[in-house]
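[recover] target loaded
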């Protein structure tokens, strides 16, 4: 830290660092290696977004800031990587907001089933005052949030039967994320929810420890869940975002110029990632059709029935997360819908 401060002071007072101090040095950019890990694969829109982030950061920093990418949970699951950021042993991760509710319960408002209908609605809420308010809760937990990326609308796969009606959830042992709203919502529908980290899902499906799971189509395709599942039902029961996290321990060592590069790259790569995610949601469906998994639509009427059954769960958690916040969420949504 002392070295960094000395360096910055030297730069701001205009002292050159020897004869060939480069342009980047004078802007306060040091050579750094940034470890960025995610749970999904390189071919997933999240992986492609991370590669775009790397490209932008390396380009804007003249190659001084190097982003080392780790895909497919090689550095651990969402919670483990988030803890590594807090401890300062990893610099970046992009988890689902859902498993972070143990730390910041208010992130749970995004877990309300059937809350969002369109990508325009999700963008408006995540990039608006509500999304910002939640990012502001991160620093006191040793984390910096640079914005939201897209995970997407989630659909159920399982090995027992197609889910066409609200009643079809009964008795299904479904993996959920480590999130109490998801757990209680599936319980209300009569399923038997089993929370576990994403990295364990494929094996649990393969060994029939669980009957099914739920994720966006891009993930069902990328992680080849169709190899170990018979039915894919387009429930679109919840939209979950990713949050772009940086270790605060690391962030606090950065110069304003370096922080700006990371912030801008996270937003720019995020725009690309969201676009790609939306295209992939369509493409993945076509490709999943070719795999032989049985795919069925779920009628709006049945989705409304599901929402009705889950309503008391949403009401319970609305109280817990703060009625003011939830009311603000609904009124922001109304604005987008007008
Ligand atoms: O990189 C993100 C994944 O680790 C995870 O968040 C994916 O939606 C996910 C899940 O079901 O755990």
């Amino acid at each position: 830290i002392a070295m960094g401060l000395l360096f910055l002071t030297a730069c701001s007072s205009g002292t050159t660092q020897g004869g060939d101090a480069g342009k980047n040095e004078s802007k306060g950019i040091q050579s750094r290696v940034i470890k960025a890990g995610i749970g999904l694969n390189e071919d997933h829109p999240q992986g492609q977004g991370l590669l775009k982030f790397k490209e932008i950061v390396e380009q804007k920093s003249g190659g001084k800031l190097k982003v080392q990418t780790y895909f497919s949970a090689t550095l651990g699951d969402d919670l483990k990587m988030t803890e590594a950021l807090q401890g300062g042993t990893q610099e970046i991760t992009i988890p689902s907001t859902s498993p972070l509710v143990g730390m910041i319960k208010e992130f749970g408002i995004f877990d309300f089933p059937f809350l969002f209908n369109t990508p325009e609605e999700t963008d408006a809420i995540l990039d608006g005052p509500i999304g910002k308010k939640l990012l502001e809760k991160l620093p006191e937990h040793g984390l910096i949030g640079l914005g939201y990326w897209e995970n997407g609308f989630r659909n159920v796969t399982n090995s027992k039967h197609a889910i066409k009606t609200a009643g079809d959830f009964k008795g299904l042992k479904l993996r959920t994320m480590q999130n109490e709203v998801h757990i209680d919502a599936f319980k209300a529908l009569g399923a038997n929810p089993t929370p576990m980290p994403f990295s364990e899902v494929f094996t649990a499906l393969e060994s029939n420890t669980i009957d099914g799971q739920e994720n966006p189509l891009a993930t069902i395709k990328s992680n080849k869940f169709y190899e170990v599942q018979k039915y894919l039902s387009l429930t679109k029961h919840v939209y979950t975002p990713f949050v772009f996290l940086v270790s605060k321990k690391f962030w606090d060592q950065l110069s304003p110029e370096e922080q700006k590069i990371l912030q801008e790259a996270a937003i720019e790569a995020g725009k690309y990632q969201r676009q790609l995610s939306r295209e992939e949601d369509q493409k993945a469906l076509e490709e999943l059709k070719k795999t032989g998994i049985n795919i069925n639509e779920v009628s709006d009427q049945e989705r409304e029935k599901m929402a009705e059954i889950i309503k008391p769960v949403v009401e319970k958690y609305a109280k817990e997360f703060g009625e003011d916040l939830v009311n603000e969420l609904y009124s922001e949504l109304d604005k987008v819908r007008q």
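[recover] notes: The domain at 28-337 is CATH 3.40.190.170 (D-Maltodextrin-Binding Protein; domain 2).
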